[in-house]
Amino acid sequence: MSVLTGRGDGGSMNQAAASQRSTQQPAAAPADAASLRPGAGPADLCKDPSALRAQAELRRRSPRAEPLKYLPDVHPARLPRHIAVIMDGNGRWATQRGFPRAFGHRNGAAAVRRLLEQTGRLGIEVLTLYSFSVDNWKRPKDEVEALMQMYRDYMDGEMSRLMDEGIRFVQIGSMEGLPDEVRAGVRGLMDLTAGNTAATLCVAVNYGSRDEITRAVRRLAADAASGRIDPATIGEADISARLDTAGLPDPDLLIRTGGEMRVSNFLLWQISYAELYVTDVLWPDFTAEHLNEAIRQYAGRSRRFGGLNGDGPEAGA
Question: In degrees rounded to 5, what are phi and psi of residue 169?
Fold first, then answer.
């Protein structure tokens, strides 16, 4: 669960990764087509003025960002602004080694820390982790209790680091049903980090996209019934503004570990145009280099946003 672990759904493994095109434009400054081409060498990019400008732009928000050092073969302008992750495979990882599932969750915590560290080095603006779904309450009581304790421990243990690195913490999902201590910890950490601007760590706990959309529609219906909004004028922006993710950019890249080819009721509205990347790697084994490979594939794809023109190798095809 939680920011510390991952969902650990279990199941078969597959090699293929599905791809969709993202509506979210690149966050960094534009660059010339030659330097943006997939496969441009590290030496080329490290000397390329447009790449240096794009990195400087990222560093204005996140001073510790050095994408040309930590991912030198991808132009900083091609980095995703928002990465969302379905952290799957903790249970299988532990079972394969003859340990209880809780052992996998604890080792999943290390993968979260590695991921957060690397996204900080790359200057990724938003990282969203699918930690505990509304369906995960069906798991054994002792496992759920252990996961909730790990979440509380995470919030206590990472508070100083989030402040030191300027990371804002937000949680999406329903607060109803969460233990009182978890709710108090979430509110406290969100309040403490609200002014941080280097990056945002968004954790989905007690989350399900259908539940999120249902709650948003209820709020919209209440606003319409009270006369605060004209039903005839309701558009996509009105729905987005009432989702848990209001104020965050939509994900550009969705990564799923553990090989399952499904999105598991995660950010269904928000990932409409996200690029999808699926890896067989189980979550506790996921490293910074695995993240880099996902970003390389993302950066090499054509992003035409439903049209014919794009910024990748298939543009105009």
Answer: -105, 130
